[in-house]
Automatic annotation (TrEMBL), chains A, B:
This is FAD-binding protein. Residues 37-216 form the FAD-binding PCMH-type domain. The lineage of its organism: Bacteria, Pseudomonadati, Pseudomonadota, Gammaproteobacteria, Lysobacterales. It comes from the Bacteria. GO terms for molecular function: FAD binding; oxidoreductase activity. Its cofactor is FAD. Signal peptide: none annotated. Keywords: FAD, Flavoprotein, Oxidoreductase.
Length: 460, 460
């Protein structure tokens, strides 16, 4: 049973035909995302064209019914959970790659294209789209743009916001807007397309994206550097980022991660390792050895215990084994996990990691940190038993303190996951009152009735 | 004689002390910019602190008096000319570099710091700030941000908008907002700081900027490639941009430019040259030869007449002589020049250049094109005699057609100069009506009384 106004349901059924779903079973499939939160929408719409998307928003606006855009629901913050019910708009049928222009370093796509499908289509052109979230194989470009998805490569190539040229979108007022141009430079009025990136479907529904592509490097080489402690590793990160050869990945693991990878995952790591960096360079056969040499030099300093280089792709896989052993190993500690992706300036990684370990002690819960060190973007994983009410409460309290710590260190709440439901209550700590008020007013311009993804990103 | 309300003049004189100027001679010094347009402000304010800037905006808002932010007036579009009079706010006293953090790749500056001064201060840290407009020695960081300044290096390192992490600013409502964080990744709410970049002082006054820095390459090497015609050069540009070694500069000159450089400037260029590319790579001693080799390979193809490499810095200067001979040579053609910086996708450079030459014929005026080919950002220079009314009229009409041509080719009005007064009447052609309406509404949120730089960027 749908709670939509009958007139609206009829109108949208006529508009969308077979792309209009109100069966409870089908609605359930669009009720959740990777945050494990869940809320049943009143209906699911699968538009095939921008005209359908625009007509849908206009109809919902007239009835003040919520509209929640959805890629494939891989986000971790609850941003695609329809907490106020209404219509979930899934872009799975708008999944065409419309154009690839290699000389212009540009691809034009519909929002429902999977990141992984796009990379496959770009490979024969010698190009790639930089955002590489863990979910890349099954997350959409539209969803990547909505939360400003990043990934390990962002340290060299930027996140989603840095890799989009233009967007066509339907605002909450039902207007079709065209933001930016498919050129790599532009200074023509207000920069609206970057404003839409990371706005989590609260301002407009993206119906077409012109993406900025990068020529694919021919090869990559990995280094694994093990350090005595976090400080030594963080100083190495600062040295690595202050020299001209930017690594194509620069991943960090703290002492509990290293221990887990060794003891549970069976990774080959020294017993006294207090921190680990995975460092990668990419380039061509001629210059890659020099790049690796420059990175090895920068990685070397007081507190380095071991530096291993992968001579080939198989050796690279062996070096990455420690990182890959980590996620399964985490599950052995506790059934539940809160994974938040705070960011601090690179120089503040040591006080962040130390502070997190102090919180782990204070709240008597294991917390491990790993992630994208070159951007200061650490994934803080707090492990607990969700069936244990006291633990759950402590976990929430500890995570609130992690956010406060990151903000104190000049950082921010999220580097690539976004705010969604998970962090919106912390927005007033991260963003000053006048700035937050301005954000609310901007939201009201794009979405005067407040129908787009209500309850997300901005606090009540 | 100032036309300001007496109460406001008294209040601001008390607020700013010696930093408040109403003498006509002093006002005249702030009346113009490099567009050669001119309009006398009622007063000039030289704030020393953000608190003064905020109090000033609040006072002006109460009296609905225009506030026009100004760096050093080097912009070419009239964006800093106070056409509605009011108070010009010059940031020349807010010119401190507050912090340089090399490990974080970040500098924190006040808006009045000169771009050139900043580069000098960064050099000992082995870092630079990428925007390199021609005016770098005497233009301010605040002004660079206001118009999203670029320059030749933007092809590899981005323009101003790509190189800022966070901004503190005073809105037209007199609110102090803090946009972004000084981290290289962020997904916390709406992206306001990039919205302020390129907004030409119409949304807020920037009072502090956290800039994204890049490690300075150790060396550079230049290639000069001469082609039979524009098509051959443009195909080379597409090849250069589709391979992984991004040039640090990729500058284009069309046939009339080459002819002028040879015949008037005395540059050593073949007589049958139809187009020229200046190609530069940067890097370290070990890898630079490979980069130059990759660029030379990409530059080579049908229609290449000559490819010269500069073995050292002196040879590099000789290769650049053709480019440097150009500006003085242009002056021999006509006393007046309109220089606009349209952008098209790289693949559309040939129809842009051909179309411009057709317009030169149609309007019987010399037009030459040169500029930043790797971004498709060409400077279209139309030469005429401003004392000749018929020529002036033809020049305006021809430039309107140049804009229409760039838009037809999927491009935009400006790559790095901005809109200001010069191109605002063309905004309705470049930006769709619903999008322009949205821009106006956003402006009203930031600046409810419309006091910030009235008459600029958005058309009436």
């Amino acid at each position: 049973m749908s709670a939509l106004p009958p007139g609206l349901a009829q109108e949208l059924a006529a508009l969308l035909g077979e792309g209009w779903r109100t069966d409870p079973g089908e609605r359930l499939a669009y009720a959740y995302d990777n945050s494990r939160r869940e809320a049943l929408p009143d209906a699911v719409a699968l538009p095939s064209t921008r005209e359908q998307a625009q007509a849908l928003v206009r109809a919902c606006r007239a009835h003040r019914v919520p509209v929640v855009a959805r890629g494939r629901g891989t986000n971790t913050t609850g941003a695609s959970v329809p907490v106020a019910a209404g219509v979930v708009v899934s872009f799975e049928r708008m999944n065409r790659i419309l154009d690839i222009r290699s000389g212009d370093r540009c691809a034009v796509v519909e929002p429902g294209v999977l990141n992984g499908e796009l990379q496959t289509a770009l490979a024969p052109h010698g190009l790639f789209w930089p955002p590489d979230p863990t979910s890349a194989a099954f997350s959409t470009v539209g969803g990547n743009l909505a939360c400003n998805a990043g990934g390990p490569r962002a340290v060299k190539y930027g996140a989603s916001r840095d890799n989009v040229l233009a967007l066509t979108a339907v605002t909450g007022a039902g207007e079709l807007i065209v933001c930016g141009t498919a050129t790599t430079k532009g200074s023509t009025g207000y920069d609206l397309h970057r404003l839409l990136v990371g706005s989590e479907g609260t301002l407009a529904l993206i119906v077409e994206a012109s993406l900025r592509l990068t020529p694919a490097p021919q090869q990559r080489r990995a280094l694994r550097a093990v350090y005595r402690d976090v400080s030594a590793a963080a100083r190495a990160v600062a040295r690595l980022m202050a020299q001209p050869v930017t690594p194509s990945m620069l991943e960090f693991m703290d002492a509990p991660c290293v221990r887990l990878a060794r003891e549970v995952g069976g990774a080959d790591l020294p017993a006294d390792a207090g921190a680990l960096l995975m460092i990668e360079a990419d380039g061509d056969a001629a210059t890659l050895p020099y790049a690796v040499e420059a990175l090895a030099r920068a990685a070397t300093g007081d507190g380095l215990l071991a530096l291993d280089e992968a001579a080939d792709e198989a050796a690279r896989e062996r070096l990455w084994a420690a990182r890959k052993a980590l996620s399964p190993a985490l599950r052995t500690l506790a059934p539940g996990k809160i994974n938040e992706d705070v960011v601090v300036p690179v120089s503040r990684i040591p006080p962040l990691v130390d502070g997190v370990q102090a919180l782990a002690q204070e709240f008597a819960l294991p917390i491990v940190c790993f992630g994208h060190a070159g951007n200061g973007n650490l994934h803080v994983n707090l492990l607990y038993d969700p069936a244990d009410a006291a633990q759950s409460e402590r976990a929430q309290a500890a995570m609130a303190r992690v956010f406060a710590l990151a903000l104190d260190l000049g950082g921010t709440l999220s580097g690539e996951h976004g705010i969604g439901l998970a962090k919106r209550d912390f927005m007033p700590q991260a963003v000053s009152a006048p700035t937050l008020s301005l954000m609310r007013q901007l939201k009201a311009v794009f979405d005067p009735e407040g129908i787009l993804n209500p309850g997300k990103l901005l606090p009540d």
